[in-house]
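Final paragraph of the annual report: two paired records, presented back to back.
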Amino acid sequence: MNTKRAVIHFFLSWALPWDAMGHGSMFEPPSRNSGGMSLLAPTCAGGACQWYSQGCTIGCPQCSGRYSAEPDCANPAEPTLKWGEDDNLLQYHTDGHGANTTYFPWRYPGAAPIMDSCGIAGGGTPPFGQLDPPPGHPAGSSGSDTAHAPKLLEQTIWVAGSAVEVAWGIAANHGGGYQYRLCPEGEPLTEECFTSTPLEFVGDKQWIRFDNGNPHTAAISRLREIPAVRVSGDKVLPVNSTWTKNPIAGCKINGAREKLPCLGPTMVPPLLDETFPYGGGAEPGLYGFGGGHCMGNVSRNASVRCTDMEYGNAVFNFAIVDLVKVPEHIPPGNYVISFRWDCEQTKQIWSSCGDVTIKGPDAPAAGTKPFSALRGCTPCCAAMGGLCANCTRCLNDRTGDCAYCWKPLEWWGGRQYWSPRASHIQCLGYEASDGGASTWMPGQPTSVWSPGCPKCWALEDGCAMHVRDLEQDISVTPTLPDVIDLRIPRDWMLHGSGALLLAVIGFALAKRKIFQI
């Protein structure tokens, strides 16, 4: 959040197993793990929240892939975040099923091993892991392998020495905290490389950006500022780097998994002036488990299957935004950014990777405007890893190799005993009328979603690398509040006098150079 200017973001944009899954992913900058797709943004765009490591105990040499709560080695590290000393950083004495959390990743941030700094599809290599990969990827796929998680066609520009916005979303809330790190493109994407350049957070504030991420539905995103809770020094690795606590309060006792009720927040939640549906609407404040509330194993308990409305009410429609400092003296060039979320309630670590191009502080180019829309053509065009890139000759052919393009790529590798989280992805056949991506939002009946390849292929530069929208010159911006909260009913906003008034307001704000689209 650029705290030197007012922000009004107009955005043309408006999901778990029986045991436990944290499920979260980086949303800004866009992650490779999303495949460039908008489905389920901002919490799990394109299945980005299905890339993680399971069975990760602090101080152990490697993750086991197992879910069991016991330590994964004989001599785990002792936690640095301790009840009685660091209660402001912790939420869970137990995992909600009776096992204590002493050796879970967040109890010593950064000290647990990780399978891949960009995540593993399904949490591990079969037969271990949760084995719930995102559509189109086999369980055990590596997020650092561009054959599975391609570099996006959209380029994000950062300027050395500047403060930039980063954001992530939660599909299933397990507390803990997170960090962002950089590694030069072309280097092996290892923890050794990423931990050499952890990004420092700026200030003691962060923001909740309410916006369900669908680029086909007009909505006004709104931002709410909340206090950030940081931890550094010798309590974390790398030593003296900074981690930030997940600010969203979880649910007491059982965590609200498996469609169990949310029995109030585990800590004092932010935004006590509002009541949200995620926690059942029982108490004020921002808390809950997220869409994972509905994702149980229906072969064990059929009652965990939510109705469409129940799922829509449980899903978080917001991202958690922070400011981080781009190192002032970092050499210009292309970098990979890794987001790492160490869970507190489970032995799981969620990871996402994305790409940024860093310009020198004297470069004439401005940085990328955060949350600027994606064209969404990566799944249709990326030669390496594009989910539907092998379908370019299949618009009028459903046979042979083209049959793949006309079949749903199901969640969780087609394991039907898991309750469904969203519409399945199919490369061709379910586009919008203009050939672009179809629209699906949580709460609507699940069906099939297509990424919009015909539109991408019809554009002359649809499959070309391109720079996302850049910031405007704001040196003469008038002084205004950091956030202007315009909560206007969408039906009113899009029709009649509401649309006319909104247009007039937009024109006026645009003249003052504070209106961002």
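The closing record of the year follows.
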Amino acid sequence: MGEADETQFGFSWFRPKSLQVLSNFIPFMIILSSNALLQGAIVNGLVSVSISSIEKRFKLTSTQSGIFAATYDVFVTIMLIPLALYATKVNKVKCIGLGMMIVGIGSILVIIPEYTAGPYSVGEARKDVCVTGGPDKKCTEGSSDSFSAHRELLLLLLSQAFVGIGASPLFTYGITCLDEFDSHKRTGRNLALYMIASTVGPALAFVGCGFMLRLWGDWRTSPADMGIDGAADPRFIGMWWIGFVLCGVIALFTAFPLLMFPKRLKDTGLRKANDVHRTDASLDKDFSDHKYEFFKIILMLLKNKTCMCVILMQTIEAMLMNGYITFIPKLLETLLGFSSGNASLITGGVVVPVGIVASYIGGRIAKVFENRFKPSMYFVITFGILAAGCSSCLLIRCESLNVFGVNVPSADLPKFGALETCSENCHCDPFFNPVCSEDSKLTFLSPCHAGCADSPDIKFGAQNWTNCGCSKNTIVKKGYCDASCQKQIYQFIIMFIALSFCIFITAPVLQSSSLRVVNHKHRDHFTCFGWLWMRILGSIPGAIVFGYIIDVNCMYWQKDCVSQKCQYYNASNLGWAFFIFTIAVKLTGGVLLFTAAYFYKESDKPSGKESCRTLDTDASESVKMSYEKVQL
């Protein structure tokens, strides 16, 4: 009964015969991929799409939102050591299922700060236009809003902590299970399909949440009451939280079948009969009976040049990619002037088809290479160099706007047909409601900054303002001045497609060939050890560093008594900073992979029947018998 249970689908007494067909690789692959899709949607999709809205909603800086994104990686890192320690002692598939349950709960938790933060506010109506009398508003010490702002941030971090803890088994045990349950020849293909699912998830989140961000996100207020007439208004707050709640609920259901999978599938022995041994000679060791097995394995990995060069390359790549994943929609808003919703839709529209096609092609190429390490590394290096070239798309941007008080000082106002003192007597609150003087193409931070008079016929939130001292014809219109850059948008999208293709096509090739470097018994240790480096030195600082770079390039901070929010960035400096960072990472990664290939030496162990037999030494007798039949 014990041996039969090892490959039976179900739990405890519930193991119906009708469900035993699920104890095979294809059903497992489908269910695992659906969970990867949801995890990708939550972590790499919804967080990125919602980051601008979260900053506006809770008045966070980009550095703080970077910390919010990095919290996920912090708690993934915390879980990596116990995952490596107990990899051979637990049912890895059930661990993945339990983790995805926690991911679902963590995703749903984001509704709590949205509720406790109270109604969304953009400022006071009285300072929307020029007021010439009365003192400016003063801040009172010990404002209760300050505690509230920190409370909401802590609640957001708590949500990310749950997601990080729960998602940690998915891309450690999940990858090794794909390699463990199916032939090594198909590992590249399986990883490609797995990565396609994890790519489709963020893409669907980008597209779906892009539409949700066009809907007003605070059920307690009305945008019209605050003078906000649509999603194009930079103060508009979309329904950012709905995607987290929906994905969280679905994750609770998709995770449940994983809790019923056995430790080993029925068709594993048949699928792995012809596996080929390609382990690096210095890593082909067995410490199964050693007292300090875990520490021996880690020390062996640390001493191996090939292993460490691959890990270091993936670490700096993780720093770059986590920064991109978190802030690429925000970068599109800054470079090309898109709204949050449109930036998300365009990003998702590129990532979906390109990610699917490139990952599939990468999986097929990995199969052609037959997991041979050196050809795989040279392939990855080539496309890494191409990606570095395509990253020049970050230098494409719309023409910079002329914004009074940001990059146009008072002394330059006469060039635009206005007096230097046109709004000198106006007491303007830090209220952001940009308006445009169309004749001079000059943007102002608010009607007040444009010197627009507070007349009875003008209501808060109007589309046009009259009696504006800083405008030639005294009329200004709502929103930024138009920056026509249709040509630049098309150029950016074409090069962004090429950049995405070069990134996605290498992932299955690199991952599948890297798994062959280590002994099959050390797959979990290698994967967890690699992720430990990637999180601590890559993903965690990546989001924070990119957030800091964005904050440093802020040209106008809207400040109040509690916090500050950047409303306008230096697009040129921001594009150059991201471009230089990308070039440095790609070139350094290429050098590391070349070094890894140079020091790699394949083990001289024979492949075929003898080596294949060692791949499943812990298998049950029934699986061994089926294996022997295949060999004969």
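The chain has two domains: 2-12+21-134+147-399+485-616, 401-482. This concludes the annual technical report; the extension proposal builds directly on these records.
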